[in-house]
Design goal:
CATH topology of chain B: ABC transporter involved in vitamin B12 uptake, BtuC
Strand content of chain A: 15-25%
CATH class of the largest domain in chain A: Alpha Beta
Largest sheet of chain B: 2 strands, antiparallel
Largest interface: B-C, 48 and 47 residues
Oligomer: heterotrimer
Structural class of chain B: mainly alpha
Shape of chain B: globular
Number of domains of chain A: 2
Number of helices of chain B: 15
CATH superfamily of the largest domain in chain A: P-loop containing nucleotide triphosphate hydrolases
Chains: A alpha/beta (about 260), B mainly alpha (about 325), C mainly alpha (about 290)
Shape of chain A: globular
Distance between the termini of chain A: 33 Å
Radius of gyration of chain B: 20 Å
Number of domains of chain B: 1
Strand order of the largest sheet of chain B: 1-4
Radius of gyration of chain A: 19 Å
Strand content of chain B: under 5%
């Protein structure tokens, strides 16, 4: 379980996240929603070690993450994707994914340099794992293409493969549907559910598009101005008054109810 | 798969012949010491450029002081031979080790300081090194430099031809090392660190270690080059290791194409040989060089290396795209 | 050491310091607004001096003030032109590319000067010749004092322009946040080129001030340029007041270096301090720079 316990993060005078307590259970799909600037991406950054929390505790299966380096957090089985697409454009697709497999490649610099047998073996396994991950997202045929040559939607899928190749237990997805057209979003949702079902991967889905969240998440946490304002199954959360006010900024009426129902188009 | 194997078999003989030709022809046919040394100098510069490219083009670090690393190794070796009386081999090893230690220091620094700071640190190191060379005359011979005698193998002094052969051998070795690194998890980690360091960290790459490795390897290449420099001319002077010279090494890397190994070799050779034709007006060559850098940066960022790759694809049927994406040659040999 | 000698060193150090400060200010400006480390800055200085002194003054026989002014204009124009054509294009590239570009430019400029003017050093006595100013028993080189005063005046004028005029405010806005400044209607690219040209003029002026107290050689560009970078670092990277203070510190360190260690070691103290600052306190001696730790 990934747990945030009273986590606060300040940047200079700005409080991005305030006293946040939430958790991601093994094998669940959790949604994290909130209006712009509510601290969703900051939360993901905190969990993956981009910067340490100002106060509070973040633990993963009991291990404290606060002071760990990002690559050590990765080793514990936590990966992510990024809101603005961040592949390594100068490398091929399969190289992008293989690089993320480093967790299972312990061969030393020298062994790798002179191509000792165990180093060659691990390289072969890495390539196979990368192709497998690409296959799972349907991108195996583009393996040798330069990453920056792919379309936006394709690159998104490669990023997902990159997050999956190291067999993580928890994957944080930061706005995975951003920039995708409706058909692809549905496919993405189905893919996530499939991976969750078959491999037991827990997903935290940060999103704006409430429809996707509602369809695949069993539970939702809502942030506003860095604080948690609601938590629970989608049906409850969406009727929550505070949530509606946060998104629409006014009191709930029958009109606003209808607006919420149509909100993500 | 079969097609690839066939291509391999077709290309290898050509490259092997080229290699042998470059290794054997110059010492056999170039009787003028000046020109033989010049060709050697080309390979030395290629080694320096390759090392610099690994740190700068592949791993994305900034190093404005590569000439100082070359000079460090050259001077340590020369001083040990001349002042302490060691023979060549241990002196050379000491020179290279010294340079690698300095490279490790730069790698360590590159993890604490960002871009412009790292640039100025390396520049500062080069400047201080220059000053020390010029002032510690008792050790370094000052502006007049140091002369050493050629090494002996089994009591026989190495002549120019033998030196060339050794030198070229080292060039091949370093080029192979660079390729081994580039097409491996080490090289991928370097490139990931270069392209997006934060993401690399999150995806499990120990970027701190990667940067140190890159700087150490770059320094190693400079160290080897320094010893070979001393071997080639049997004479070194501070003027060969100035910040301007560091800039020229960067020029070789840039013109050849940042991140492109073959390009660094081509860039080094071009920049070593062309000035010979432009000696007439002092300064003209550097104007051309500086202008070329700007041209390349503005118009052909992929540099000479890309052109070289294109040439080599004329001998194989692989598309440029495949070559350019640094296609993984899995060590087992299959594509 | 006699009082005379100490005062000479002090004033000389401050004079050189003000020259470094002028060049350093230009460097910081270009860094803050264009994210560019201009390693060719010293060469602008070099070019300006050679054009003013050799071409215009000696060869064409123009009066010195006219030569200086025209040379400054030429250098300013050249800088502006360069900024518009080359550096605008490179702005979006990583730092490495722009460093290499400016370094390429420095190669071109320095060697163009070599090609056109030859390697011979020149000497130039400036506006005041070899006069000395005497206060009691202590004498100063008039050119030292001149350099000091003129640069102070220029810096003060510059600071006032920045603070009190509209264009000064626009420049500060661009230095602070380029995108927003653009959105506010400030013609950012035009202003950036202008500032680049102006920095080049500052460098050229610094050169004119320093040549009378040293020789006009090809090394002048790199000699002053590297010290200017050291000034920027020591005073606090990215800060304009830091660059100025850093300049004076470097000038004094130079003087101290010569006095304590001898002329051969003149530069060592300044660069060694620069490295120390980078390792121990990257935000500069005064801690006002942008401390860039990862």
């Amino acid at each position: 379980m990934l747990v945030l316990n009273s986590v606060t993060k300040c940047f200079g005078g700005v409080i991005a996240v305030h006293n946040l307590t939430m958790h991601l259970e093994e094998g669940e799909i959790l949604g994290l929603i909130g209006p712009n600037g509510s601290g969703k991406t900051v939360t993901v950054n905190l969990c993956t070690g981009v910067y340490p929390p100002t106060s509070g505790l973040i633990t993963l299966d009991g291990v404290v993450l606060n002071k760990l380096k990002p690559w050590d957090i990765n080793r514990l089985g936590l990966t992510r994707t990024f809101q603005t697409l961040r592949l390594w454009g100068g490398m091929s697709v399969v190289e992008n994914v293989m690089t993320a497999y480093g967790r299972f490649m312990p061969a030393s610099f020298w062994s790798t340099l002179v191509r000792l047998p165990h180093a060659r073996r691990e390289e072969k396994i890495a390539r196979e794992a990368a192709l497998e991950a690409l296959d799972a997202v349907g991108m195996a045929e583009f393996a040798n293409k330069l990453a920056s040559d792919l379309s936006f939607g394709q690159q998104r899928l490669v990023e997902l493969a990159r997050a999956l190749v190291s067999k993580p237990k928890y994957v944080l997805l930061d706005e995975p549907a951003a920039g995708l057209r409706a058909g692809l979003i549905v496919q993405l949702g189905e893919l996530l559910q499939k991976l969750n079902r078959e491999q037991g991967i827990a997903f935290l889905v940060v999103e704006h598009r409430i429809r996707l969240i509602v369809n695949i998440c069993s539970r939702i946490v809502v942030l506003d101005h860095g604080e948690k304002i609601a938590e629970g199954p989608p049906s409850d959360v969406l009727k929550n008054e505070r949530v509606i006010i946060a998104y629409l900024g006014r009191r709930r009426t029958r009109d606003t109810d209808m607006e919420v129902a149509n909100v993500d188009d | 798969m079969a097609a690839t194997q066939k291509i391999r078999r077709r290309r290898w003989p050509f490259f092997f012949l080229l290699l042998v030709a470059l290794w054997v022809l110059p010492p056999t046919f170039l009787s003028s010491p000046y020109y033989l040394r010049l060709v050697s100098f080309g390979w030395i510069n290629a080694i320096i450029a390759l090392g610099l490219n690994m740190a700068v083009g592949v791993a994305g670090q900034i190093n404005l002081g590569q000439a100082a690393f070359v000079g460090l190794s050259a001077y340590v070796t020369a001083m040990l031979i001349k002042l302490v009386g060691w023979t060549w081999l241990p002196s050379a090893v000491a020179g290279i080790v010294g340079t690698v230690v300095a490279g490790t220091a730069v790698g360590w620094v590159s993890n604490r300081l960002r871009g412009p700071y790292l640039a100025i640190v390396t520049l500062g190191f080069n400047l201080v090194f220059q000053i020390l060379l010029l002032t510690q005359v008792d050790f370094t011979g000052g502006p007049m430099g140091l002369r050493v005698k050629a090494p002996e193998i089994f009591g026989v002094k190495m002549n120019m031809q033998a030196i060339y052969i050794v030198l070229f051998g080292f060039f091949i070795l370093i080029y192979m090392l660079c390729r081994l690194i580039y097409y491996s998890k080490i090289g991928r980690n370097f490139r990931a660190t270069r392209d997006d360091e934060i993401v690399a960290r999150i995806m499990g790459v120990n970027t701190v270690r990667a940067k140190v490795q890159a700087c150490m390897f770059s320094a190693f290449c400079a160290g080897v080059a320094g010893v070979l420099f001393l071997l080639n001319y049997l004479f070194i002077a501070p003027a060969a290791f100035t910040p301007m010279q560091s800039f020229r090494y960067l020029a070789m890397v840039v013109i050849g194409g940042l991140g492109n190994l073959l390009g660094s070799v081509l860039g080094a050779l071009v920049i070593t040989f062309i000035p010979e034709f432009l000696r007439v007006w002092p300064g003209l060559w550097d104007v051309v060089l500086g202008g070329s850098i700007l041209l390349v940066l503005l118009l052909f960022p992929k540099g000479l290396g890309f052109f070289g790759e294109y040439l080599s694809t004329l001998f194989s049927q692989k598309k440029i795209e495949q070559r350019w994406t640094g296609q993984i040659r899995s060590p087992g040999g299959e594509q | 050491m006699s009082l005379n000698a100490v005062v000479q060193i002090l004033v000389g150090g401050l004079a050189f310091g003000s020259v470094y400060a002028l060049v350093a200010v230009g460097i910081v400006f270009i860094w803050r607004t264009m994210n560019l480390l201009n390693f060719a800055h010293g060469q602008f200085l070099l070019l300006c001096c050679y054009v003013a002194i050799i071409s215009l003054y000696q060869k064409l026989g123009w009066p010195i003030s006219a030569s200086v002014l025209v040379a400054l204009l030429i250098v300013g124009l050249f800088g502006t032109m360069f900024a518009t054509t080359v550096f605008e294009r490179l702005r979006k590239q990583p730092l490495l590319t722009s460093v290499i570009a400016t370094m390429g430019l420095s190669l071109v400029l320095e060697n163009a000067v070599l090609l056109l003017f030859g390697p011979r050093p020149y000497s130039f006595e400036g506006f005041l010749g070899r006069k000395m100013i005497w206060i009691g028993n202590v004498g100063f080189l008039a050119n030292h004092v001149f350099a000091l005063l003129v640069s102070l005046i220029i810096l003060i004028v510059f600071a006032s322009v920045l603070k009190y005029t509209i264009i000064g405010r626009a420049i500060r806005a661009v230095a602070y946040d380029k995108e927003t400044a653009g959105l506010m209607g400030i013609p950012v690219p035009w202003l950036l080129s202008l500032m680049f040209g102006f920095s080049a003029i500052l460098a050229g002026l610094a050169g004119i001030l320093v040549v009378p107290v040293t020789y006009l050689t090809l090394d002048l560009g790199t000699a002053v340029g590297y010290k200017a970078f050291a000034s920027v670092v020591i005073g606090g990277f990215g800060s304009v007041p830091g660059a100025i203070i850093g300049g004076y510190i470097v000038g004094l360190l130079e003087g101290a270096g010569t006095a304590i260690l001898g002329t051969a070691y003149r530069d060592l103290l300044a660069f060694a301090v620069m490295l120390l600052v980078l390792f121990l306190r990257p935000s500069g001696i005064l801690g006002i720079g942008e401390a860039e730790r990862i």
